[in-house]
């Protein structure tokens, strides 16, 4: 247990010691929530959607968390794959390395969500703060799963970042309120979390079914991330 | 014997169709390392030395063959596998946990290796702040800190200055004399006199030279 806690703390520390990461942790939520709320409304209108005002600000906070979590999830896998494998081989084992990595990822997700949520709270306010925070966290956890999955297939930093950004853009611009909500939009990973977040931004609650759905999606994303970390720390065949 | 590998085969598939091709790297490679033995593994670039080492260590799956190891394993990879933002001390702590060393033993082992390899003053430095040679010293120290029975070294001295290179051989010989089995991948035939036995990897097989 101590080895996992130490590993998780070290993996978390590794990300938080990067100055650029810390700067982006503040700058990206500010950009998405403060600067782009009105632009999002115009985009939504152009795409056939209707999101605007406080709902757009709330959605911006979710996307900021998703973008940061996806990028950090990707780098958690791609940047230290070989070193993690060495640590597993030294006796820590792939399962314990994976648990340490997922602990660090969840801690990063909570931190990212807290910063995005605070930015939203300070800039636009939110009527249902607890709902909004949980929905933002779901965005982050979902993208931790996506980022780590991309990291397992793509090793290059540029290619991986672009892949995460590409998925993010499709997800964001086909989400509820941003388009006519048909076709592919229904299958997007943050669809339900976006519904909850838009409701929270507009001062409304969400149906129980939506909460169950976002819970299952978050658990699925974390399971995916854990499996990815575990496979990355195991001996490889090629 | 602390290590016995027999009939190890490995091939890789590279490229995409129609240019996809199979590259056979190891075709039944076998080698042995006994306790208190310093064994070299030499071969041309691309002969499969690092591939064989990774299979023996357990980092890479083999297609066929058998690998038997006895006792604690220490592995020093060719390229330092470290975490850029963590300090030297944090690496020692992390690996001490992985090796399940008691706190006192871990502290004593890291102190001793920092002194032996002469990089004590860098213990609070992050990896990104270290020179290539100092990274390599840490890479080696992490493989040694739990006093393994079998030490596998994949060109461990790249980046070392001459004095550190000589010190590395003194350290290896002393550990060999204490009973450690050591397998070292090397490029230099000039090191032949330092080694008890040498395997040359040629056409995917190990020949005792």
Task: Write up this protein.
The complex is a heterodimer of chains A (238) and B (209). With 238 residues, chain A is an all-alpha fold. Chain A has one domain. Chain A has ten helices and no strands. Chain A has helices at 2-16, 19-35, 37-47, 53-78, 81-92, 94-123, 129-153, 157-173, 191-201, 208-233. The longest helix of chain A is centred in the middle third of the chain and has 30 residues, at 94-123. Chain A is elongated. Chain A starts with a helix and ends in a 5-residue tail after the last helix. Chain B is an alpha/beta fold. Chain B is built from five helices and nine strands, in the order E-E-E-H-E-E-H-H-H-E-H-E-E-E. Chain B has helices at residues 49-57, 88-98, 103-116, 132-144, 162-177, and strands spanning 3-14, 21-33, 38-42, 64-69, 73-76, 150-154, 181-185, 197-202, 205-208. Chain B has a six-stranded mixed β-sheet with strand order 5-6-7-3-8-9, with helices on both faces. A three-stranded antiparallel β-sheet of chain B has the order 2-1-4, covered by helices on one side. In chain B, a hairpin with a 2-residue loop joins strand 8 and strand 9 (205-208). The longest helix of chain B is centred in the last third of the chain and has 16 residues, at 162-177. The model of chain B has no long low-confidence stretch (mean pLDDT 93). Chains A and B meet through helix 1 and helix 5 of A and helix 2 of B.
